[in-house]
Amino acid sequence: MDKRKKDLIKIAAVQASPVFLNKEKTVEKACKLMSKAGSNGAKLIVFPESFIPGYPDWVWVVPNSKSKILNDLYVELVNNSISIPDKLTIKLCDAARKAKINVAIGLTERNIESSNSSLFNSLLFISEEGKILGKHRKLVPTGGERLIWAQGDGNTLNVFNTSVGRISGLICWENYMTLARQALYNWGTQILVAPTWDKSERWLRSLQHFAWEGGMFVIGCCMALKMKDIPDRYEFKKLYPEGREWINPGNSCIIGPSGEIIAGPSEMKEEILYASIDLNEITKSKRMFDVAGHYARPDVFEFRVNKTG
Hints:
This protein is of the alpha/beta class.
């Protein structure tokens, strides 16, 4: 076999809608997508931000004075959130093992370690053997998201060794936190998972910069969500502009370590994006610029991450 072909690893980014605020059915959908990607030869699959049980977009459309609407939505979101571990994470792990695929999936996580009523915007990592590698809790929810999600801490800022390389993740605008990125660069991230709700061109340009800056592959993964994906029983649905079809069109993509887009961007459709990557491209990109290596200057700068939780 050609050595270059032998070095290639197939990775996948899911652009799909959840079954809105239904964790059981959304997990079922996620498991089917894992199976499909695994059958197509992918060794890593990434799902969007808060794929389970769906991104709470009402934080951007419902005024905080509408307590009745917000309280009812919060109760439903809490009841449809994931605890790590629980029976649904076991189901996800079983699906990853059967598909022989590494998984990074965005979800809303319930804080079982204390009150059981606060939530985190989390990213769950599962190995191809079906083992939970760990999780990452978003450090700073953005704007209206702070009405839903609590802040994560440095204890969940990690890089995981997998069969496809060293993987880490930052969620949406958390990627704009320069020092969070620097920590992952220092720890040798090869594939950065960046699930998001941002579908803008500015976001795509930023991801390209991060890939080049860190000398790594970046997977920008966003859900494609239509108005019809939200059941009519939700009162907040009436607050969107009349005639609107797409709440989020997606714009998912996969980017190489030189900053080039190698898959996507995909817009206004559900699909799985695939790319075959070669980790040797990372080494090539760092010959001239290695932000955590010969450009780091530890004699000038001092860096520390508080991982005590």
